[in-house]
């Protein structure tokens, strides 16, 4: 009985969080690392981008390297992947045996193999590379707990954003129904699958009377380097949290356009038009020490805006 209640409570509190490991643009700073984020879905860790210094950021944030099973690289500019080879090698040195999956544009596989060959490193674990098409939006990962879909972005270089979506949970069994009953694991699975329950006396308990709807499935969209790009809007519509680069303030909109980046107001405009719940700004130019002005600009368009800062953890 206690086990069933504990499982019930656990089901109601499944983790979905984002940890910012790097919030800056191309140049690493003492207080701001380049792009990297860990998304925790039900204690499964997904790494999005892996700039130089990401290993140290993982350790600072007490994230276990070995728990990372899937790494998604948005594009092959150095501030988004220069930390990958170091992480791959460290996992080897730590004795990893579990598979590591890397999702990125095709040229990265050659770079990884070249580095391993040059250092005469034979990995102790299987490294599985998944080539993604930057021109297409497609599901590149699927499991029982989550899916990851790519988002074509608009940069002066092929770039893919990503949406990670939690799988819809089965209905939760009502706590008051469980009280005083000893359900078998088979009974529990059947009820979660939608079946009615027949008690030992032969009474039928309709599924809709003994369960309640689960929490809505959550979604996080990661839009790294991109100019203002309205085709993104329907793809990220309604997500719980949208990370959108905001390299510049509005007084440098011309620079943003020339470099295929976005301003804080442009990021907020995408968020507003997409009807997302919250916006997270990031990828700030090194010229900005104080980020409050970027935040203030974005909030004039989309009030529920946050600043990505190294070490920030956001629960969805």
Describe this structure as you would to a colleague.
This protein is of the alpha/beta class. It has helices at residues 2-12, 54-60, 84-93, 107-118, 175-178, 185-192, 207-210, 233-236, 253-258, 264-274, 292-299, and strands spanning 16-22, 36-41, 44-50, 68-72, 100-104, 127-131, 139-142, 146-152, 160-166, 172-173, 197-198, 204-205, 211-212, 219-223, 241-245, 278-282, 305-307, 313-315. Strands 6-5-4-3-2-1-18 form a 7-stranded mixed β-sheet. A hairpin with a 3-residue loop joins β7 (139-142) and β8 (146-152). The protein is globular. The two termini are 30 Å apart. The relative contact order is 0.14. Mean pLDDT is 93; it is low at 1-12.
Number of strands: 18
* Averaged pLDDT: 93
Widest sheet: strand ordering: 6-5-4-3-2-1-18
* Rounded radius of gyration (Å): 22 Å
Helix share of residues?
25-40%
Poorly predicted ranges (pLDDT <50, ≥5 residues)?
1-12
Count every helix, treating DSSP H or I runs of 4 or more residues as helices: 11
- Describe the sheet with the most strands: 7 strands, mixed
What can be said about this structure in brief?
By secondary structure, the chain is of the alpha/beta class. The protein has eleven helices and 18 strands. 27% of the residues lie in helices and 26% in strands.
Give the key terms.
single chain; 316 residues; alpha/beta; 7-stranded mixed β-sheet; 11 helices; 27% helix; 26% strand; globular; disordered N terminus
Question: In terms of topology, how is this protein built?
Answer:
Elements: H1 2-12, E1 16-22, E2 36-41, E3 44-50, H2 54-60, E4 68-72, H3 84-93, E5 100-104, H4 107-118, E6 127-131, E7 139-142, E8 146-152, E9 160-166, E10 172-173, H5 175-178, H6 185-192, E11 197-198, E12 204-205, H7 207-210, E13 211-212, E14 219-223, H8 233-236, E15 241-245, H9 253-258, H10 264-274, E16 278-282, H11 292-299, E17 305-307, E18 313-315
Parallel strand pairs: 3-4, 4-5, 5-6, 14-15, 15-16, 16-17
Antiparallel strand pairs: 1-2, 1-18, 2-3, 7-8, 8-9, 9-14, 10-13, 11-12
Helix pairs in contact: 10-11
């Amino acid at each position: 009985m206690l086990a069933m209640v504990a499982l019930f409570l656990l089901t109601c509190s499944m983790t979905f969080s984002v940890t910012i490991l790097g919030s800056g643009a191309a140049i690493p700073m003492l207080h701001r690392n380049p792009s990297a984020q860990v998304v925790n879905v039900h204690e499964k860790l997904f790494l999005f981008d892996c700039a130089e210094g990401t290993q140290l950021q993982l350790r600072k944030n007490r994230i276990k390297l070995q728990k990372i099973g899937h790494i998604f690289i948005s594009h092959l500019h150095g501030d988004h992947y220069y930390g990958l080879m170091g992480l791959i090698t460290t996992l080897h040195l730590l004795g990893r045996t579990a598979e590591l999956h890397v999702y990125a544009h095709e040229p990265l596989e050659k770079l990884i193999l070249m580095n391993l060959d040059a250092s005469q490193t034979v990995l102790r674990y299987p490294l599985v590379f998944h080539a993604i098409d930057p021109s297409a939006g497609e599901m590149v990962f699927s499991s029982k707990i989550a899916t990851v879909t790519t988002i074509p972005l608009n940069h002066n270089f092929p770039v893919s954003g990503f949406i990670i979506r939690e799988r819809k949970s089965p209905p939760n069994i009502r706590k008051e129904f469980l009280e005083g009953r000893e359900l078998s694991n088979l009974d529990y699975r059947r009820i979660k699958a939608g079946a009615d329950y027949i008690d030992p006396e032969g009474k039928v308990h309709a599924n809709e009377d003994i369960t309640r709807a689960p929490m809505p499935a959550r979604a996080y969209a990661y839009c790294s380097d991109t100019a203002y790009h309205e085709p993104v809007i329907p793809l990220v519509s309604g997500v719980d949290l949208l990370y959108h680069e905001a390299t510049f303030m509005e007084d440098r909109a011309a620079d943003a356009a020339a470099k295929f980046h976005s301003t804080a107001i442009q990021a907020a405009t995408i968020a507003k038009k997409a009807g997302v719940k919250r916006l997270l700004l990031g990828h700030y130019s090194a010229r900005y020490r104080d980020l409050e002005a970027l935040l203030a600009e974005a909030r004039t368009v989309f009030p529920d805006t946050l600043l990505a800062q190294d070490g920030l953890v956001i629960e969805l």
